[in-house]
Amino acid sequence: MAQRNWIAVASAEHARRGRDHQPLGFMQVGHGKLGPLKRVAAGDRVAYYAPATVFGGTDKLQSFVSIGIVQPGAPYEADMGNGFVPCRLDVAYAACREAPIAPLLEQLAFIENPKQWGYKFRFGLFDVSDADMMLIARAMEADLKALAP
């Protein structure tokens, strides 16, 4: 099965928590829902886009904050306390820097109308082309070897 590319949407704080988790990073989407994770497979690439720094924040961070490869294994539950038990997938994140989306808006194929570019991100998780993922990876100065299938 071919490798797919995904954009996941979360606050930077949440995306960074998944990226920096040790010994292996993780991804969660849709406030820990299982359904969207069932579409993602081991070997797929995922880049996290953060509209704001913190969940519900009003700052306009509008940046890609992490990028990596989904690892083998089924989605699993993780108890984060206070009754919150989200579903996760393990991800090996590549070394990179955070990168704003604004300079990429005219180049990303998944953005059909640059004046209304934010619409697609409302879905929380969506797939993109190899070309778009590589454009994002280069903007993030990501370790491209770590993103190879």
What report would you give on this structure?
The protein is globular and about 40 Å long. 36% of the residues are buried. The model has no long low-confidence stretch (mean pLDDT 92). The longest helix is centred in the last third of the chain and has 10 residues. Strands 1, 2, 3, 4, 5, 6, 7 and 8 form an eight-stranded mixed β-sheet that branches. With 149 residues, it is an alpha+beta fold. The chain is 13% helix and 25% strand.
What is this entry, summarized?
The chain has 2 helices and 8 strands; from the N terminus they run E-H-E-E-E-E-E-E-E-H.
Helix content: 10-25%
Mean pLDDT: 92
Alpha plus pi helix count: 2
Largest sheet: 8 strands, mixed
- Compressed to H and E, one letter per element, the order equals EHEEEEEEEH
Distance between the termini: 11 Å
Q: Gyration radius, to the nearest Å?
A: 14 Å
Number of DSSP-assigned strands: 8
Shape: globular
Poorly predicted ranges (pLDDT <50, ≥5 residues)?
A: none
* Residues in β-strands, percent: 15-25%
Summing up helix and strand content along with how strands pair, one would put the structural category as alpha+beta
